[in-house]
Design goal:
Elements: H1 2-20, E1 22-29, H2 42-51, E2 53-60, H3 63-74, E3 83-85, H4 91-100, H5 110-113, H6 115-123, H7 125-131, E4 141-144, E5 152-156, H8 157-162, H9 171-183, E6 195-198, H10 201-205, E7 221-223, E8 229-231, H11 236-250, H12 263-266, E9 277-282, H13 291-294, E10 297-299, E11 312-313, E12 319-326, H14 333-341, H15 346-354, E13 361-363, E14 369-371, H16 375-382, E15 396-397, H17 400-404, H18 409-418, E16 425-426, H19 436-462, H20 469-482, H21 484-498
Parallel strand pairs: 1-2, 1-3, 4-15, 6-9, 11-16
Antiparallel strand pairs: 3-12, 4-12, 5-9, 5-10, 7-8, 13-14
Helix pairs in contact: 6-7, 11-19, 19-20, 19-21
Length: about 500
Amino acid sequence: MLKRFLCLLTALILLPACCLAQEFTMAGFDGQSSTHDWNNNEFFTRMNERTGLSFTFSQYTDKAQWQAAKAAMFAEGGTLPDVLFKAALTSDELIRYTDSGQLIDLLPLLPENAPNLWALLQQEPEWLRAITLPNGKVGALPMIQTVSTQNAMWINQKWLEALRLEVPADAESLKKVLTAFRDGDPNGNGRQDEVPFLFIGPWELKFFSHAYGVVVNDYNLYLDEAGTVHYWPLEDSFTAFLTDMRALYADGLLDQNGFATADSLRMINDEDATPTYGAFFAPTPLYLMPLAMCGDYIALEPLTAPDGSRIYRDLSGQLSRGTFAITSACADPAALLRWVDVLYTEEGAIEAMVGKEGKYWSYNSDGTWMWHTDDETAAYISSGLVTLTDTGEMPMLFPKAFNSAFGDASIAHITAQCDVLTPYLKAPYPEYTLTADQRAEVLPLQQKLGALVDTAIANFVLGETPITEETLAAFRTGLAEAGAAEMTAFWQTLADTLH
């Protein structure tokens, strides 16, 4: 009898651990630059301590291989994992696989099983609308960044100070500053080697549209306050943009290699190199130079347009969609939602990003924080075993305040500057997920029109096509023949459904 009682007691003691020790299969894309190994990364160890969930992984770091793997797992006869993490799911995939039932609709499960995320979505209804598909389902959860990544204008403040120049506030003052950068030897090496303003191709030049009172998307259009869709290349402000860009280029104020370069060719690797960049477009200066040089640059506020407006294109918005999805193979979706919901809290997101306080980092007395600097800790952090947040797109609420409190002055400077554009950001068009039929209708138009517009910008700015009434009329005729009216009507119809 005693033996039987002890066996029963042992079973009862072990029962909770057995219930909590759930294991799932997980597949995902960790980013092209990843050096992580999910099997050994402490992120999953910490999450297991919090939730009791563990995983068998299928990790990818090659985008083409990940696309092929997704196609295979969702194909007839394919084997679905329980969950897709850092999933990089496209809109087409989300619609197709929620329609087929292979991705489950998370929307009805969120209030009970992801209360932290649900509270955020209730506070920001636009976020919920943005992740809701045309079929009414939520197929995947997002990464939320209240300070989103932008293609900002950065300018060399050290050069401004050396030449006793004010920060440019409009197109006219920008031209004066760039002229001074060209002629005034601000880097002090006695050579005229300064590049006043760097850019890469027509796509980046179009970020100057804000100086003409509009911000346009990659379809070259925008929705005004009255709900009317405009195709910018047909408007007078586009002609003004072309004229001004041509003048800047002809005067050597724009990078003369801007239509034939790449970031890899512009990257400065030597922190002791003589700086030659006056201004440029980039998410941060780190895209082009070592950290030691970044402190010389500040983010420009938008240039004031002729109508007095100060706006800037919101490039990525605050959400990265398609980062976390649960498949029909999963026997317990609620458990996985409770697991990921941890990442939509500040505490959970901080721990995901830098690990537990005291182990690898600590708060300073002034409220800032720093990594521990002993050699062993520094080596371990650089090994990529502490976090997964530095590559790919991860489901979480990015901890903005914590990130801004990093104690390194150079990083703090960049972080603060990244927030400069926030009050001025404007989406050219509301976030909208196209159905497969809608994409089939609009993408052929975009392929023709987009190529026409970008080619025309390059030719006009380079001077290969003179800017005259005749050449502009021919350009507009080409747009009309390629379907500019149809493109505008397509987006107008969608806009009418959103109001």
